[in-house]
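Figure caption, in words: inputs first, then the predicted bound structure.
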Amino acid sequence: MKLSFRWYGQDDKITLENIRQIPGMYSVVTAVYDVPVGEVWSRESIAALKKQTEDAGLAFEVIESVPVHEDIKLGKPTRERYIENYCENIRRLGEAGVKCICYNFMPVFDWTRTQLDHVLADGSTSLVYYQEQVDKVNPLNSDSDLTLPGWDASYTRDELRAVVAEYNAMTADDLWNNLQYFLEKIIPVAAAYDVNMAIHEDDPCWSIFGLPRIITDEQNLDKFLKLVDDPHNGLTLCTGSLGCSAKNDVVKMAAKYAKMGRIHFVHMRNIKILPNGFEERGHLSADGSLDMYAITKALHDNGFDGYVRPDHGRMIWGETGRPGYGLFDRALGAAYINGLWEAVEKA
Ligand code: DNO
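Bound structure (D-mannose present):
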């Protein structure tokens, strides 16, 4: 297990020094953030990022994300250019020593929550998803002010309407076909540069706002891995994304896909499943619905040796900042992951 931590670059309040001081920390998880989705990252920006992280004593081995342009997901003729750009990014990152690239294939909206500062019983705040709130919001309404950190803020309301309309004309099968087309082009490049591609599950793992979502459960992950049956075509096992549906047996999935050598990256966090949705909680098993010990053991016992990062944290001790991405609770998560790993290793 190689412990890693997401860093949003120069603008992140959390410094590389902060990250370096977390026990056991090995690599940053970062990206070039100032390039529009679909364009090629400059070699200079990649080299600067690498130098900065390595100078701070951390490895530069995991990128999250190289985002996938909507034209690729929509299967438009213009996808050719964006896929070629994507391949070029894989080549450049591979040359810079990157070993793992996390990405997702969710139409338009990345991770979605309905409230970012829900107060938990202990006074900390966390991100939550309540179905009745989702039913009330329509991100396409001009009077809706819902924007989330995961969403691409570059869309105007009209552009958003237009792209959603394009997806509405598409079936889940169309999305699968477009994913396969994309993988068939990028995986040979990833293999040539020995970069592991690690798709992130849809979060939450069901369809929202009427848009198709396909990276959601065991059956679909099986199907995904077979689209291009190459170890470089793998997963980011996100415990919280899969775990927010009680139908997903995350322990079983961790064991199964680790054994297949197809998990390259793990996002560790706990959630509490509620009748009307879910709440993000502390990483501890006792705080939520997931057995974090059993998940860690399943990974360990099946030979997992990829990257792990603590995922979203609550806001604690008065910290403010990017929802889910403060320092304190994620650092507690990292310490907990270290403890679980040491325990399963020595048992
Ligand atoms: C949320 C993250 C996601 C993830 C992307 C991967 O906190 O886990 O935004 O980075 O879905 O492309």
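The mean pLDDT is 94.
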